[in-house]
Design brief:
The protein is mainly alpha-helical. Among the domains are: 90 residues; 85 residues, no CATH class. The chain is built from 16 helices and no strands. Helix 1 packs antiparallel against helix 2, helix 6 packs antiparallel against helix 7 and helix 14 runs antiparallel to helix 15. It is rod-shaped and about 90 Å long.
C-alpha cells in the first residue's frame, strides 16, 4: 500500500491500542509497524500474525498487504483476500476497498462484480475517495449494478471533493467527458433539473450543436413537471418563436403558471399588453386546465 494510507492508519491505530489494549499488545504492534516501515517484513510478519489471529483489524490489514505483495511471505492472493476480508468485516475502509478490488479482478477470490460493488460501497460510505470513485465508475459502466448515471455523478462528485488530487482529477475528467451524455440519460429518466439543463445546453450550444427546437422539447418536459424556471423560458420561446411557432396564448399560459416567480409575473404583464382580451381569456383557460390536470396526477 502507499505510504499515505499507512500514515493515516498508523495514527488511527495508536488511539485504539493505547485506549483499550494491554501495553504489551500495543508494543508488539508498534514494533511490527516499525519493522514493516523499515522493510524488515519477516519481523513484521512474526509480530503482526498473532495480533491478527486475535482479531486486530489493522494487523489483519497489514497481513493482507504482505501476502498480496509477497513481503516476508510467499505471494498468495487467497491468503491476502482472507486477511483483507477479516479486516473489512471490522469496517476497515481500505481493506473493504482492497477486497472489492480483488473481487473485481478475480484475485484470490472468484471474479464477482456484484461483491466488488458491495465492498466499494462500504468503503465509499466511510468516505474513502478511491472507493467512491470506483463505485461511481461501476454505476457509469453498469458493472455489477444497473447502469445509473445519476448515482455515477453522485459518487464521482464525492470523490472529486476529497483531498486526493489524483482521484479528484480522474473524477472530474470522467464527469467532464460524459457530462452531456449523462444529463441526457438522467433527463430521459424524468429528472426535471436534468431536462432543464439539457434544454439550456441545446439553447446555448454548450458542447453540442445549437438547436432551439430540441431546447424547447426539453424545456417543455421540465415545465410539465412544474419547474418554474423552465416554464418561464418556454413562455419566452413561444413569445419569440424560437424552436416553436410564435404563440402569445401559449406564452401567456406558461407565464401564468410561473407567475409566483418575479420573472413569470413580469413577463405575463408585459406580453398581456400585446394581446387581445379573447387571447388572454383563452390563455387563462388553458392555464387553469393544465393546473387541474396536474393536480390529478
Amino acid at each position: 500500500m502507499k505510504s499515505k494510507p499507512l500514515t493515516f492508519l498508523y495514527g488511527f491505530t495508536l488511539l485504539i491500542f493505547y485506549s483499550g489494549f494491554s501495553v504489551v499488545f500495543a508494543d508488539d504492534f508498534q514494533n511490527g509497524l516499525d519493522a514493516y516501515l523499515e522493510k524488515d517484513y519477516e519481523t513484521a510478519y512474526k509480530l503482526f500474525a498473532p495480533l491478527a489471529e486475535q482479531g486486530n483489524a489493522i494487523s489483519q490489514f497489514h497481513m493482507g498487504n504482505m501476502y498480496f505483495n509477497g513481503q516476508g511471505v510467499p505471494h498468495d492472493y487467497k491468503k491476502a483476500a482472507k486477511w483483507y476480508r477479516l479486516a473489512a468485516e471490522q469496517e476497515d475502509a481500505i481493506s473493504q476497498f482492497n477486497i472489492g478490488e480483488m473481487y473485481s479482478k478475480g484475485q484470490g477470490v472468484p471474479h464477482d462484480y456484484k461483491k466488488a460493488v458491495k465492498w466499494y460501497r462500504l468503503a465509499a460510505e466511510q468516505g474513502l475517495a478511491q472507493g467512491q470513485f470506483n463505485l461511481g465508475e461501476m454505476y457509469f459502466k453498469g458493472t455489477g449494478v444497473p447502469q445509473n448515471h445519476k448515482e455515477a455523478v453522485k459518487w464521482l462528485l464525492k470523490s472529486a471533493e476529497q483531498k486526493s488530487l489524483t482521484i479528484a482529477f480522474k473524477s472530474q475528467r470522467l464527469i467532464r467527458t460524459n457530462y452531456h451524455q449523462w444529463h441526457k440519460k438522467i433527463a430521459e429518466q424524468g429528472d426535471s433539473y436534468a431536462q432543464r439543463f439539457l434544454g439550456a445546453s441545446y439553447y446555448l450550444g454548450l458542447g453540442i450543436t445549437q438547436d432551439y427546437a430540441e431546447a424547447a422539447k426539453w424545456y417543455k418536459k421540465a415545465a410539465e413537471q412544474e419547474d418554474r424556471v423552465a416554464q418561464n423560458i418556454l413562455g419566452a420561446m413561444y413569445e419569440k418563436g424560437k424552436g416553436v411557432s410564435k404563440n402569445f396564448v401559449e406564452a401567456y399560459k406558461w407565464f401564468s403558471l410561473s407567475e409566483e416567480t418575479v420573472d413569470g409575473h413580469m413577463y405575463k404583464k408585459k406580453i398581456g399588453k400585446r394581446m387581445t382580451s379573447a387571447q388572454i381569456a383563452k390563455a387563462q383557460q388553458l392555464a387553469l386546465e393544465w393546473t387541474e390536470k396536474s393536480q390529478k396526477k
